[in-house]
Automatic annotation (TrEMBL):
Binding site for Zn(2+) 2: 124, 159, 384
Species in which this protein is naturally found: Gymnodraco acuticeps (Antarctic dragonfish)
Residue ranges of domain Peptidase M20 dimerisation in the record: 199-310
Binding positions (Zn(2+) 1): 91, 124, 186
High-level lineage: Eukaryota, Metazoa, Chordata, Craniata, Vertebrata
Protein name: N-acyl-aliphatic-L-amino acid amidohydrolase
Residues spanning the signal sequence: none
Keyword Transmembrane applies: no
Cofactor binding, note field: Binds 2 Zn(2+) ions per subunit.
Keywords assigned by UniProt, alphabetized: Cytoplasm, Hydrolase, Metal-binding, Zinc
Gene3D superfamilies per UniProt: 1.10.150.900, 3.30.70.360, Zn peptidases
Name of the gene: LOC117548236
Length: 419
């Protein structure tokens, strides 16, 4: 059955025949679509979004940024279309599940007696997608027309690095045409009363250190072995790891996003018990805050390699150098609109650097300020985890939060260069 034009949550049709809020029903319906890697059903998501666009009476454009990878954009034109627009971004894909560790089918969107909805994507980030949609639906139903244009963007492949999604799309001329001034994207739940907002991200560096050495028979004391160099390299990285861990644990105002994490993830080398190998390699996953001088940090790595011995070299599999951070200064017009709207709702914000990576990094890299915000307080952080859930009350509150935020952001007065 198609909902009427005003759709769920407004116009007197607040609940389904079973007494469930229609926004919750819509959320659960979206959670049941298997947009799960490694073979996400993107067609199902696009069909769903087509229907929503029709309900909201908004034009939707689809741009195939890579073969089989479509970015969908619904546009709510503002009263003054030449002004910079507001982007509401969300990704449609979700990470795989280990069903045997789940209490319920991860794609059934089961709701328990407390109103907790269990499904992959409840937190990351199908909740936000539906909250954006329902917030815009309500604003439209109230007859509001905002000054700036609002784009709702739905991107594929965030969970596999965004290369065939947002990373490609920001380079597409169609992205430029959206004339985006400010973007909202995903954040993380907060177990306490506050809500977390993210204004930057750590840079992932995946590095392999090659330690060549003199080969020989396993019965002798061979000089200059690969293993000795490997030990040196490991010590340098893991001592640094210990220091960063200390720094995180001894400072009350530090979160994971403020320190560099170091993890040794792979070791390779050797052919037989009695053969001293000609090379041993070790790989690390580093996540570096945008506040760190990255050039200096690389010099430090080079130094560690030099200290480890002759001909020790390094190679990057991934090296992000993005140090863009979105302003959270009170004189920034976007941030001040965002924070004032939160203040008006008595929401406490905790500002953090995102510990992992999201599509926001591609948005910031092209010079657009972006805030990561998923309005989920009183909720354990369960993204990518077993039994990911979100309580329906928290979900519903988030719609009201976005209603205020979208209205505030799309009402930011024209800047001098926009007049
Ligand atoms: Zn996500």
């Amino acid at each position: 059955m198609l909902p009427d034009k005003d759709g769920p949550g407004v116009g007197g049709r607040q609940s389904s025949p079973e007494g469930e809020d229609l926004s919750v029903s819509l959320f659960r319906e979206y959670l049941r679509l298997k947009t799960v890697h490694p073979d996400p059903d993107y067609d199902a998501a696009l069909r769903f979004l087509d229907r929503i666009a029709e309900e909201l009476d908004l034009p939707m454009r689809k741009i195939e940024v890579c073969p089989g990878r479509v970015v969908a954009i619904m546009t709510w034109e503002g009263k003054n279309p030449p002004l910079k627009s507001v982007l509401l971004n969300s990704h449609t894909d979700v990470v795989p599940v280990y069903q045997e560790h789940w209490k319920y089918d991860a794609f059934s969107a089961f709701k328990d007696a407390e109103g907790n909805i269990y499904a992959r994507g409840t937190q990351d980030m199908k909740c936000v997608t539906i909250q954006y949609i329902q917030a815009v639906r309500r604003l439209k139903a109230e007859g509001r027309k905002l000054m700036r244009t609002v784009h709702l963007m739905f991107v594929p492949d965030e969970e596999v690095g965004g290369h065939k999604g947002m990373e490609s799309f920001v380079k597409n001329p169609e992205f430029q045409k959206l004339n985006i001034g400010f973007a909202l994207d995903e954040g993380l739940a907060n177990p306490g009363e506050a809500f977390t907002v993210f204004y930057g991200e750590r840079n992932p560096w995946w590095i392999t250190i090659h330690c060549p050495g003199s080969p020989g028979h396993g019965s002798r004391f061979v000089e200059n072995t690969a293993a000795e160099k490997l030990r040196h390299v490991m010590n340098s990285f893991l001592d640094f790891r210990e220091k960063e861990k200390q720094r995180l644990n001894t400072s009350e105002c530090f979160t994971l996003g403020d320190v560099t994490t170091v993890n040794m993830t792979m070791v390779k080398g050797g052919v037989a018990y009695n053969v001293i190998p000609a090379e041993m390699d070790v790989s690390f996953d580093l996540r570096i805050p945008p506040t760190v001088n990255l050039q200096e940090f690389e010099r430090q790595i080079k130094e560690w390699c030099k200290e480890a011995g002759e001909d020790v070299t390094y190679e990057f599999a991934q090296k992000h150098m993005n140090q863009n951070m979105t302003s959270t200064e009170e004189n920034d017009p976007w941030w001040s609109a965002f924070s004032a709207a939160c203040k008006a709702m008595n929401i406490t914000l905790e500002k953090e650097i995102f510990p992992a990576a999201t599509d926001s990094r591609f948005i910031r890299a092209v010079g657009i300020p972006a805030i990561g915000f998923s309005p989920m307080n009183r909720t354990p952080i369960l993204l990518h985890d077993h039994n990911e859930f979100l309580n329906e009350k928290v979900f519903l509150k988030g719609i009201s939060v976005f209603e205020r935020l979208i209205s505030a952001l799309a009402s930011v007065p024209a800047f001098p260069d926009e007049a």
